[in-house]
Fold these 2 entries.
Entry 1:
Amino acid sequence: MNISGYLLAREMTTRIGQPLIYLLLIFSIALAVVTVVPALRRNMRYFVLVLFLNLVAGWLRLVNFHYRIATELVLADPSGAMATGRFYIPVWIEDEKFFFWPLILCGLVLFSRYKDQVWQTALSALLAIFGVLTFFTSNPFAEPLKDFHAGYIQYAMTAVANVDPAVKAQAYHSLHGRMVGFYNSEYMWTHPPMLFISYATFAVAFMGGILMLTKRDDIYEKLGYSYAKAGFIILTIGLLLGYPWALTAWSGEPWWYDPKINITLMMWVAYSAYLHARLYTHRRGMRVTAASLNYLGFFGVVFTYVSTYLIPGIHSVAG
Amino acid sequence: MIKNLNYILILATIVILGAVGIAFIFGTTFSWVMSETDGLWRQTALYQDYVNVMNLTVGPMVILLVIVLGLCIPKRLFSGARLLQLMGSLTAMTLVLSLSLGIRLGISALLTVAMFMQMVVIVMTLVGSKKLVFEVTGFYIQIGSALLHMGLILFLFDLVLIGDALAQRTLHLNIFWVSTLFIGVGMVFTFYSDELSRLFSRGQASA
């Protein structure tokens, strides 16, 4: 175990990341200005590109930090002092979640094949909002992996302290449980990122719904639908992948009807109903129904994300 | 007539899904209020009461959803009066078995019949049978829809009949993975049928 190497990597992540997150705020505000000033809009894609590169740079720094965690830190059994494992932590936990989501959204905006200026402007405005929100609510560089760090430092200090072996064993088992069931779980590498990717596509689909309403042009509804169906596939597979994980990780605990699971299922049924209604938009009333379900679904996306921080439960960091 | 029947089934699905969504919103709001009132309420008997109420609310809607799904399956194989007769028989069978042997067995019986019918639909779609009744044309969308419905039936069957008890966890998860595969592939084929048709026809043309 090389704690000093890890601490150095963590400090470097803050040193490199903090300027990047301030740049993210500046570029996001600049992008917002570009979207509202018509004369500047022809340069909009350059601003999106810069924002994308900024997000990618930040994310690569986080990847490097996680790589250093995997190479520098071990979790050793205090009874035999044998190395029992390393931490292979995905780059979308704790405050990194809301960094990953705008990164995907930015990629979707940048690589959107439909170049209509209204569409590009609306998506850029959405991206600018996400960039500002990331800065104010979810900075992953200020205290990188705060919870993991606190847990590991506590374990490491207990391991070298002159304390009862039972206390050492307890600190080890506590972190080992999280390592096996959470940090290193194969589901951690599949379930959350699929959900975040789907959230990003639903944000674009929502924008399509808003534009259809304001511009009264079917093309935006069709664009929104194309993102919603992609998002729905990813969301469904992502949710299903969470099921076997829940069975093992929360065995014996009451996880069914947990608030976060409730609201996630609400979101899924809303999008499922939207896609069903979308098949019959030529029928009376179904167009409005489909659009309303699209909005309800996105309300579900936002609430699902926010509920993690607001409503206590097994799937939550609140309370 | 088949178009109207499809529309009615889709409408029923939307209404039931909407009702399930409202029930989940109620559950979340209730949990939130309870957590604010008593942080440890999940350790009290009140939590079990909440789970029971949610089961009582969501359970019937899920059963209705299963029935609608079960009724969606025969429409590929039959049409007109025969379809209506079959749908009536399936509903009656589910009701009689549910009342006499319990809801779990009634629903499982419906899902078993639907599963066999869907297997026939998949095989007939694969061999390009013209006897199937699809309101959409194209191989990928038809096989996609068939696989997606099969996946949903398997998933529900697994959940209702097998369950997640530790003794049969392996079987439960094996069926779960098969259903996930069917659902995933079915969705991709259904939503991207045009793209897949273009891709493979281009491949054939260049070959």
Entry 2:
Amino acid sequence: MIDTRIDPAFFTQLTKQLEESDSLCSWDEFKLAWKGLNLQTIPEFDGLLSLTQLPHINFLEHQVDACEKVVHEMSGRAILADEVGLGKTLEAGLILKEYMIRGMAKKILILTPASLVNQWTQELSEKFYIQAASPRKKHADWKNWDITVTSIDMAKRENHKEEILSIDYDLIIIDEAHKLKNHQTKNYQFVQQLKKTYCLLLTATPIQNHLSDLFNLVSILKPGYLGDLSTFKKKYKNTHLGAADTQEHIHSLLSKLMIRNLRKDTGLDSSKRHVKNITLKFNKEEQEVYDELDAIKKDYPSFTWLTLTKELCSSREACYMSLQNMHKKQPSDLLKHLIDRLGELPHHTKAMKMAELIQQSDEKFIVFTEYRASQFYLQWYLQQNGISSVPFNGKFNKSKRDWMKQLFKTKAQVMIATEAGAEGINLQFCNNIINYDLPWNPMRLEQRIGRIHRFGQTKDVNVFNFAIENTMEDQIMKLLYEKIQLFQNAVGDLDAILEKIPGGNFETHVQKILQESESQGEIDIKMKNLVSYVEYNVKERRESS
Amino acid sequence: MKQNVYYDFTKEFFTINGCLIEERNAKHMKVQLTRQMDESLMNRPFYWHYMKKMNREGDPMSLSFKDISIGEEEEGIYLHAGTPKLQQIYQTALEKGYITRLYESINHPTHNLALHPWLILNMKITFRGKQSKDQILSIGLNLINGAITHNMMELLEHIKLIQKISDYTFPMTPMIKLESAYNRIIQHVEAYLTTLDTDWAEQSIQQFNYEKQLLQKFFHSDDIGEEQYQKELDQLAIRYKPRVTITIANGGLFYLSVHTSQNLLT
């Protein structure tokens, strides 16, 4: 009944080598080979061998369960759909490790958004001792690399595609898999063509807009599992996605190939967020310069004014850099005048408040700003006030990042990071965050906070948001952050809502409103509309879940 | 968990292969590779090809290893299951310890002593279906009387075996030919396999058939093309079809005293 194969090479080799005494091995070598064989042996079908090999990580119960379920019950093809922040990546890594130890996966491909490639390779190396390669500009060796991390865009390029599709992968992991919801896209078709034995799809939002999204995801894993598309569509044509019973029905339908842990079930909400919005007033000089910037509107597009005022809300230096650049390209008296005026300004109101806040505490702080110029300025300013700090930005290479992180952990009180630093560092040892200036996209803010409000954070997290009164910043803070009450809850499905606003995602909407409106009143009205749309959707989701 | 098994194994491996080991403590070692080890482990065939061509010595590299219980502060490769380097080391150990002919070492026998020839095969049996596991067997067959014994390696562990025959001992000529001995062992193993529990295989087949059926229905709905269907079918087989693979890891001829041979059988 069971197919049994014996490797035939041995006997031929035995007779041959017994003739040639030189090729025979010693007793020690023979015993050593046997010992090696013993160590490589996996004696049981069940259980997780990877856990004992990774004693330095405290896996949480739901993560271990997920791994066990995927490997032993779901036979290695599954959607990992935990809510944001529950450690999907850790689950995937653990499963990967388990398959590697069991000798069931050797050739592995991990597809992630380009911005996460480095983070994946780093986490695999640090947490799982798995060395993965990722292709650089010219260099890619798909055939010889056992474990490769790359983006779909890179993989599907003409010069790589053929080779990748010819490889039999044992395991393929696709991060942010909800991006594959449409089966007509090139990305989807590419993924479907890949040769794979096991496959993991990672997404926090398995159902975004339509049930057919889910159908398409399932078709990558187990074609036919949900029947065929037209019958499926007919069956669920009139069901309302938001309805609780529909959700439940779908989830039970998928219980054999999807794992979805929710925050509320895992008891991970012990660390709370305290958000404090701090509205500051420009001092007299700053206010004057801010008003003078109005003159820009005459000769330049409204977007320029917007940029400059936003910069001035951050630091003199940030605004100065832009004006200087403009002046270089097209000198004018107005620009010259503004530059001179900037030079006369005293220390920035926000910087002073920041130093005051930090000085009142012995704890560590991470400060986020959008501008490099502000970053330099703040570092210098803190130093003048006797506060030690380290900079951080996304352009640092890995060793410099690690070094800065280490310095922050052991020596400095403050880390000043630019936006690019929001991804890829985990700083649970710090529990205070200052948003020195605010990004226009609430999800970016969520990512910032996520650096410290995550697994391993034992204390409550304090979030301080700075904004200057009567400026665009103030408005953004009031409209976006206070109204939607983003901070109070870790965002579960907000990213889905912000992505699916008709006519573009949230950020493009905000930019459009700011650029196209002719008066402050128009901006106000449009922003309010946008916010109430989001608010409505959030409420609807909450009620239905 | 067993302490340091991977570390100890690695240390033994490099010691046996003549590498210089510098140990700072019992959890960290730096190994100066020999040329042969460098060729086996460092994946740089072009370098060595070039050195040979140029008739030059070449410069073997060194490697550092550490036990999993030490953290980041020491440089080196973590020794734990699943490290590619360790897999490579296993592989090399198996290649170098593949086939042997050994004689029991006997000091000054009082009279001429006959040594019985044994064929010993060490094998790994992999059971793979929905899940996967291995079993290893070490089986010996006495080439004079045809007796078969399991756990040979364990039984021989403390017996001194050498590559040259001791004085005043002589090897007996096998009554059973090597080939038929080999076949007998294989038959023995196959018979043994039929005595094992087959639940795992039945479950795998069930799952295989179930998913195959779903896939076929889907294929008839025209949602996927022929090529895609075939590929999915192949992948299903890899994931679920129960199969057993017998790999002979190493083996050889062992000449053992009658005394030892008899001990093996009791």
